[in-house]
TrEMBL record, chain A:
Keywords: Transcription, Transcription regulation. InterPro entries: ANTAR (IPR005561), GAF (IPR003018), GAF-like_dom_sf (IPR029016), WH-like_DNA-bd_sf (IPR036388). This is ANTAR domain-containing protein. Pfam families: ANTAR (PF03861), GAF_2 (PF13185). Residues 164-225 form the ANTAR domain. It comes from the Bacteria.
From TrEMBL, chain B:
The keyword Transferase applies. The lineage of its organism: Bacteria, Bacillati, Actinomycetota, Actinomycetes, Micrococcales. Residues 170-231 form the ANTAR domain. This is ANTAR domain-containing protein. Keywords: Kinase, Transcription, Transcription regulation, Transferase. The keyword Transferase applies. It comes from the Bacteria. It comes from Cryobacterium algoricola.
Length: 243, 237
């Protein structure tokens, strides 16, 4: 299979795992030249949790970073960029006071962390490792970035599904529900134009933002329509901002 | 120049709609034309068409104004009011004075009163035994609709039904349910497109709809196509 085909096939395999998110590592591990990987959520929106891990060592890597509150995955999410450590033990690009110390005893050659984001929402990270030092190629980096978006969407959907919160649903009375949809669609249009993303993602951004803020989608949509809330693109980073 | 009589306007309306139905047309655009003509022909303040979605909930698909408060009064009518009554019974429901609303229509009555609507009429969109939605006429003055107006309104509602159900049958065989879902989905895309325009041009949702429709007309494009292009960001207007 050609590389673009393999990438597309991996995307399909990921999407097919809806409802089985603990297996999300499988298609990624099959595509990428790494020994193990994990997908986790943390940060302001979702609780710190490993969603999917290929092995105990990946799981341990997440756990360490959660416990210590530092490490590549935190930096990746903070900077909205991948953190690449081709030789974490001998030639680290960055030294974390506690994390670097903690992994001395662990068998890691290279560590890579990619942020999970959707629009302005910072969701978590994908952590990958190899046992020996290894430099990820440009193409692999690009692929992980593309696949991270697919994973972000799925992980956020999973969280919203599990929350069963009527805040994110369009509860209220059925009247409000039907009426509110219109405004949610209008707000979706505004957000997709602000961020240059597909409508389905813009909807998810509103939903995720409502979830994070503990408010209803209708509330958030009204703010967007009234231009009290906008998701402006600042350089490479995207932030939700209130006027 | 003489004022055209109401009969002339009615005939003109049917002619316009008939012209539309023979060509490739857009269901939301057709219904939009229809509600606007209704307001004109019956000399009323506002009109709207609501369709039942897959859950049987009535949703506004076209209205003379995009103002959210008008949409809201129609949605309330669709919850507990003349609109849902017409939809469930499949018959015309006349409310010549909103003050005569039964207690269970209180929220609708309050909203109608607040918007300055004194009389409301709901005409079912029927296909044989099935009712797919309702046409709502809202008047700022109290009083019954004359019998000939009720007949004319029912005829226009029938045209709307044909328009909604015929659109897809021309090309694909789709169930009534699928066609309704399709019509409602194209409304969703139009709402999203309004959002895109509201953002890119810094205008209101109401202005955005006018821009959208004018662009489609001027360029002889289907409203839903233009909306889709905007949402997919393949078209910039």
């Amino acid at each position: 299979m050609s590389m673009p085909d393999r990438l597309a096939a991996t995307e399909d395999s990921l999407n097919a795992l809806t409802g089985h998110e603990s297996r999300l590592f499988e298609p990624l591990l099959a595509l990428l030249p790494v020994d193990g990987l994990s997908i986790s959520t943390f940060g302001h929106i979702l609780a710190a949790e490993t969603i999917s891990a290929s092995d105990a060592q990946s799981f341990r890597l997440d756990e360490l970073q959660f416990d210590l509150g530092e490490g590549p995955c935190w930096d990746a999410l903070e900077t909205a960029k991948p953190v690449l450590e081709p030789d974490i033990r001998e030639r680290p690009n960055h030294v974390w006071p506690a994390f670097s110390e903690a992994i001395i005893a662990e068998n890691f050659g290279a560590l890579f962390a990619f942020p999970l984001m959707l629009g302005p929402l910072r969701i978590g990270a994908i952590d990958l490792y190899t046992n020996q030092p290894y430099r990820l190629g440009e193409q692999d980096i690009q692929h992980v970035e593309i696949l991270a978006t697919v994973v972000s969407r799925m992980v956020l959907n999973r969280a919203l599904r599990l929350s069963e919160s009527d805040l994110v649903g369009e509860a209220d009375t059925a009247t409000r529900r039907a009426f509110s949809r219109r405004e949610i669609h209008q707000a979706t249009g505004m957000v997709l134009a602000q961020l240059g993303i597909p409508a389905a993602d813009a909807f998810l951004v509103i939903q995720g933002h409502a979830f994070a803020a503990g408010r209803s989608m209708l509330d958030i949509s009204s703010e967007i329509i009234d231009r009290r809330l906008s998701f402006a693109v600042n350089e490479q980073q995207i932030e939700g901002s209130h006027d | 120049m003489i004022d055209s009589t109401r009969e002339d306007r009615l005939i003109d309306t049917f002619a316009t709609l008939a012209d539309t139905l023979v060509a490739d047309y857009d269901v939301v655009d057709l219904l939009q034309t229809l509600v606007e003509r209704c307001a004109d022909v019956f000399d009323i303040a506002a009109a709207g068409i609501l369709l039942a979605d897959a859950d049987g909930e009535l949703e506004v698909i076209a209205s003379t104004s995009e103002a959210s408060r008008l949409v809201e009064v129609m949605q309330l009518s669709a919850r507990a009011g003349p609109c849902v009554e017409s939809f469930t019974t499949g018959s015309v429901v006349s409310l010549p004075d909103v003050e005569d609303s039964p207690p269970e229509w209180q929220r609708f009555r309050d909203s109608a009163r607040e918007q300055g609507f004194a009389a409301v009429f709901a005409i079912p969109l029927r296909l044989r035994e099935t009712t797919i939605g309702a046409l709502n006429l809202l008047s700022s003055v109290p009083g019954a609709l004359p019998p000939q107006d009720v007949r004319a309104a029912q005829a226009l509602a029938d045209v709307a039904t044909i328009g909604i159900l015929q659109e897809r049958t021309l090309r694909e065989s789709m169930s009534v349910r699928e066609q309704l879902t399709n019509a409602l989905t194209s409304r969703v895309v139009i709402e999203q497109a309004k959002g895109v325009l509201a953002h890119s041009r810094g205008i209101s949702m109401e202005e955005a709809f006018t821009v959208l429709r004018t662009y489609a007309r001027t360029n002889r494009l289907l409203l839903s196509r233009v909306a889709q292009g905007l949402v997919e960001q393949t078209l910039v207007i």
